[in-house]
């Protein structure tokens, strides 16, 4: 029984690859302003978000009653010097986390997918909510990547 659209979740890596296809290192690291993320920083954020949802899902499945953690996305991106890495390495980390999480998600029953925890906003969220929210989150950032590419394009 399919609890959430796993294929949509797994397909996010291919979507990111397509979004950055043909971009040079300079284009991947270009920033419109110091406080605005580059394409590479967006990719790094998505790996960070993958790490966080990996923990949140496992915490819910373990039956913990602790509030699920938040993270300071801007501080994480800047604190790890995301623009000084390589996009290929970032995308490989994203792929590996996505694959590992998809293996877990495929093993879950409908009852597991419905298990809940309390997010950092105090809202009740299920494993299914987290997976679907992550997939939507990727879609938002694909739009952000397109906007960065348009802003960087010569007039």
Automatic annotation (TrEMBL):
Residues 9-145 form the DinB-like domain. Signal peptide: none annotated. InterPro entries: DinB-like (IPR024775), DinB/YfiT-like (IPR034660). Pfam families: DinB_2. This is Damage-inducible protein DinB. It comes from Paenibacillus lactis.
